[in-house]
Structures are given as C-alpha cells and as structure tokens.
C-alpha cells in the first residue's frame, strides 16, 4: 500500500527566511504533485513533477523530485505572509489512474 | 474556461438519510475523481470515472457510490449517512488519463447530525 509522508506537519517561520518541506513516498512512482490549500478553500495545483530530477519553480516556490530516493522537496525562498497555507504532496498509485494518495499536509504559517 | 463546479456547496443531513452531490468538470475533461477530506483522515480517494466507467475505487464502504454521465458530469451518493461522513467532498477533473494535473472544485461541505 502506497504511503506518503510529509514533514514537518506544522511550520511557523518568519518572513524573509528559507525553508524546505519534505515528502517521502513508499513505492515506485514517477509522478508527484504539489497542491496548496487555504483555510476553507479547495486545492490549488502548484507543480506536477513527472520524472527523476525534475525541478520546477514558480515565484518563491521550487519543487524537485528524486524518484530513486522516493523524495520530493518544496523549497520556500524568502517567505512572505501570502504563502501561509497548507501544502500537500500527492502521488499517483497507478499510472494514468488519477488516483492520488496524499500526504498529511504541512501547515505553514509565515509571521511578519 | 470555467473551473470545476460542485453543488451544493453546503449540506446538513441527519443520520440515516442519503445525499447526492454533483460535480461538473472543466469543459473537455473526461476524467472525474472524488475525494473525502476530514481533519482526522486527511484527503482520501473515493473513486474515479472516465468516459462513464468507474476505473478505480478507494477503500470506502458500499454506501458510497457514484456515476458519470455522457457529458462527463458526475454524481456521488452516500446512503445511510453516519456522523463520520461529515467531511469536505472534493471532485477533481482531468482532461486525459495519464500525465495531467487534476483540477479541484470548491468542494461540498457535508455535516451529518
């Protein structure tokens, strides 16, 4: 059974600092997704990582994928308050199945 | 393009009742997946439909069912509601099977009393 684990689960940081969220998964998969969720809202797609070594960047967020280590990271550079949200990683269990297994989520709070 | 829409947005039911939730995918998207989100269990996959066929199902009891229509709109039904069914139900649509991002709707928040 595929398991996806994120850490940390809670992260409080100051504006301007850098930090990394880690996402480990237990079985082979070559596709990993990152989503953002604001309180009371739905999920917003951030990144789709499709192959080993994939790196994608959008603004202050950068995601990478190491399929051999079964690890993805979401790096936040010079955090700003607007990035406060819960971040989820998710992995497809069966290729093409659109059956995602999500991590527990990392609740990120960025303080001025 | 309009995004994924879900109706109703909020629903209050009592134990033992049944409920039907609706999801309209982005135009042109043929795959619809459903997820349940609760504080305790997080986000869990319910089922996925593609071209009116259920292709995958999660580990939920038979009280949870769904279907997809020829226009790709999907419904999910929960019969004999239990308190533990209180959750945010999210549907997501994808254009094609495979490498596509799933786009999520705003969700239906169900409260079972």
Q: How would you explain this protein's 3D organization?
A:
The complex is a heterodimer of chains A (112) and B (113). Chain A has strands spanning 4-7, 10-14, 19-25, 32-37, 43-49, 55-58, 61-66, 71-76, 85-92, 100-102, 106-111. Chain A is mostly beta strands and 112 residues long. In chain A, strands 2, 4, 5, 9, 10 and 11 form a six-stranded mixed β-sheet that branches. A five-stranded antiparallel β-sheet of chain A has the order 1-3-8-7-6, with no helix packed on it. Chain A is built from no helices and eleven strands. Chain A is globular, with a radius of gyration of 13 Å. In chain A, strand 7 (61-66) and strand 8 (71-76) form a beta hairpin. Chain B is mainly β and 113 residues long. Helices cover 0% and strands 53% of the residues of chain B. Chain B contains no helices and eleven strands. In chain B, strands 2, 4, 5, 6, 9, 10 and 11 form a seven-stranded mixed β-sheet that branches. In chain B, strands 1-3-8-7 form a four-stranded antiparallel β-sheet, with no helix packed on it. In chain B, strand 5 and strand 6 (53-57) form a beta hairpin. Chain B starts with a strand and ends with a strand. The model of chain B has no long low-confidence stretch (mean pLDDT 93). The chains are: A mainly beta (112), B mainly beta (113). Chain A binds chain B through residues 31, 33, 35, 41-45, 48, 50, 88, 90, 94-105, and chain B through 31, 33, 35, 42-45, 48, 50, 55-56, 58, 90, 92, 94, 97-107.
């Amino acid at each position: 059974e595929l398991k996806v684990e994120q850490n940390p689960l809670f992260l409080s940081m100051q504006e301007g600092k850098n930090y990394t969220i880690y996402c480990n998964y237990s079985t082979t998969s070559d596709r990993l997704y990152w989503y953002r969720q604001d309180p009371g809202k739905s999920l917003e797609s951030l990144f789709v990582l499709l192959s080993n070594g994939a790196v994608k960047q959008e603004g202050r967020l950068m995601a990478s994928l190491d399929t051999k280590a079964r690890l993805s990271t979401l790096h936040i550079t010079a955090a700003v308050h607007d990035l406060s949200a819960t971040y989820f990683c998710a992995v497809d269990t069966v290729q093409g199945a659109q059956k995602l297994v999500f991590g527990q989520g990392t609740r990120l709070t960025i303080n001025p | 393009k309009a995004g994924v829409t879900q109706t109703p947005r909020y629903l209050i039911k009592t134990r033992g009742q049944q409920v039907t939730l609706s999801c309209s995918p982005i135009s042109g998207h043929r795959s619809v997946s459903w997820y349940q989100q609760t504080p305790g269990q997080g986000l869990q996959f319910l089922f996925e439909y593609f071209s009116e066929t259920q292709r995958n199902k999660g580990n939920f009891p038979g009280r949870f069912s769904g279907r997809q229509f020829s226009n790709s709109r999907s419904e999910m039904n929960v019969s004999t509601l239990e308190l533990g069914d209180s959750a945010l139900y999210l549907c997501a649509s994808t254009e094609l099977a495979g490498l596509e991002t799933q786009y999520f709707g705003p969700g239906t928040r169900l409260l079972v009393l």
